[in-house]
Design goal:
The protein is 38% helix and 12% strand. The two termini are 19 Å apart. A 5-stranded parallel sheet has the order 4-3-5-6-9. A two-stranded parallel ribbon has the order 1-2. A two-stranded antiparallel sheet has the order 7-8. The model has no long low-confidence stretch (mean pLDDT 93). Helix 1 (8-24) packs across helix 9 and helix 5 crosses helix 6. It is built from 9 helices and 9 strands. It is of the alpha/beta class. The protein has helices spanning 8-24, 39-50, 70-76, 88-95, 104-115, 135-144, 159-163, 209-213, 226-242; strands spanning 2-4, 31-33, 124-128, 148-152, 168-171, 189-192, 196-197, 203-204, 218-219.
Length: 243
């Protein structure tokens, strides 16, 4: 794991990943870098880890400082060790239906859907958020399972009209209470990927959980919903890389 700076949420995520690795017997190392000008050092470390046969998975904890070229850092990782599934080679294979490593959060969401035997085929899925980490790959995975998929953003005109049509709603926009109870139709499956920090330090998602709870057939909480599944996806990809 490569971490740059001391972003509070990143430190929590790293601790959770280290704990999960320990629990399943995966050895992990954390390399920490400080400052806005450490990109070259990070790139050098990635090159070193690429050639280390003892290392099977490499991930860079996001977000990176604004001064960093994120694309350059991600592309430096050997695609065969890209256990986050962010490298352009793996994203490209995802679009062709032949992903080596799927992005961990969408992978985790699909596992949640399958675990609770939620029908995807023929359903209308709405994804709110267009990031390369969650929104876009999530839409592709749902499309691969024969859903009709609509992708929205926080700036979509008449967002509520699109959301209300969703049988399966995945929200990953990073905006607190973007989706309220009156925007969701009865019986919809609602999966909240958002993580927003409140003034008291607690976390909340992108949907009004209490307002939607009485409407949805299934709803994931924040924290404790998609987050643990993301880590499960990371561990699964790491074992796959090892094999």
């Amino acid at each position: 794991l490569i971490c740059v700076g001391d972003h509070p949420a990143s430190q929590v995520y790293i601790r959770n990943k280290i704990t999960a690795c320990d629990q399943v017997g995966i050895k992990s190392w954390v390399y920490r870098f400080e400052g806005q000008r450490s990109e070259r050092a990070v790139l050098n470390k990635i090159v070193e880890l690429n050639s280390d046969d003892e290392v099977h998975g490499i991930l860079v904890q996001l977000p990176l400082p604004r001064s960093f070229n994120i694309e350059r850092v991600i592309e430096a990782i050997d695609p065969a060790k890209d256990v986050d599934g962010f490298h352009p080679v793996n994203i490209g294979k995802l679009f062709s239906g032949k992903a080596l490593f799927s992005p961990c959060t969408p992978w985790g969401i699909m596992r949640l859907i399958d675990h609770y035997k939620i029908q995807v085929e023929g359903k209308h899925a709405v994804v709110v958020g267009r990031s390369a980490i969650v929104g876009k790959p999530m839409a592709i995975m749902l499309l691969e399972r024969h859903s009709t998929v609509t992708i929205c953003t926080s700036k979509t005109t008449n967002l509520s009209d699109h959301v209300f049509k969703a049988d399966i709603l995945v929200v990953a926009a990073g905006k607190q209470n973007l989706i309220r109870g009156n925007m969701v139709k009865k019986g919809a499956v609602v999966i909240d990927v958002g993580i927003n920090e409140l003034p008291d330090g607690s976390l909340t998602g992108d949907v009004d959980f209490s307002g939607i709870l009485e409407v949805a057939s299934w709803i994931s909480p924040v924290p404790g919903g998609v987050g643990p599944m993301t880590i499960a996806g990371l561990l699964t990809n790491t074992v796959k890389a090892f094999r």
